[in-house]
Amino acid sequence: MASFPQVTVCKHSAIPHLLTPIRDVTTSSVQFAYYASRLMALLAEEAMAMLPAQQVSITTPTGATLPDAVRINTSKVCAVSIIRAGDSLLEAVRKIAPDVHVGKILIQRDESSADKHPVMYYHKFPLGIARMPVILCDPMLATGGSVIMAVNTLLDAGCRAESIIFANVIAAPEGIEAVSSAHPAVRIVTCVIDASLNDNKYIMPGLGDFGDRFYGTE
Ligand code: PRP
Ligand code: URA
Predict the structure, then answer these.
(1) Hey, whose CA ends up nearest to atom 1 of ligand 2?
(2) CATH code of the domain in which 62 resides
(3) Between the CA atoms of 137, 77, 38 and 147, what dihedral angle is there, to the nearest 10 degrees?
(4) What is the tally of structural domains in the chain?
(5) Residue 16 is part of which domain span?
(6) Which of 83, 90, 138 most suits a substitution to test ligand 1, by most atoms within 8 Å of the C-beta?
(7) Which residues form the Phosphoribosyltransferase domain (predicted)?
């Protein structure tokens, strides 16, 4: 498999076990949301750990001092979802860091177009986003069209590409290549890199339409 230097693949040993039910076509929407949320909690922790950390000195209840403990100030971070499926991952981030700022971008693939080009409908960002590290949340990276449009919108708002971490559950190599060629400084963190896209630009083997399965709109 090709190696992608800007991609971090989460290595937690529970990940393969959580991917099985969400890939399985017989999994109900309720079970899909349950296992996907457990998986996204791990992904959110991994994305969080990629943020800039401060070195702090702390004392434990035993009286020992740790001069080089690390701490991330999540109140200065913005988590941005690509609506709709991205909201599920945004909520996983907010569960572990309730004080993050929140931004939203509504982008939908045009499923009637051959290249599934994305259409942008709306965005809203918090004041000061330009100075914040951003965790951009969307569980699926297929052609890369949606996330490239989302990154362009963040750059227009003054964000730095180096400050953006794109978190997703499954990435297709075609999408990784498209994002790295459009925005080489954006880092990507994923649970798994799948084989390819099919003719309909769905990830293979993939899991189908994440948003439909998570929200029960199949
Ligand atoms: C899905 C997914 C990504 C996009 C990925 O969203 O959540 O946003 O497709 O495909 P791409 O890399 O080819 O752009 P979709 O537009 O289906 O909307 P949804 O979140 O409402 O399901
Ligand atoms: N969006 C999804 O939800 N799944 C895919 O495989 C591609 C785009």
Answers:
(1) 209
(2) 3.40.50.2020
(3) 10
(4) 1
(5) 7-215
(6) 138
(7) 10-217
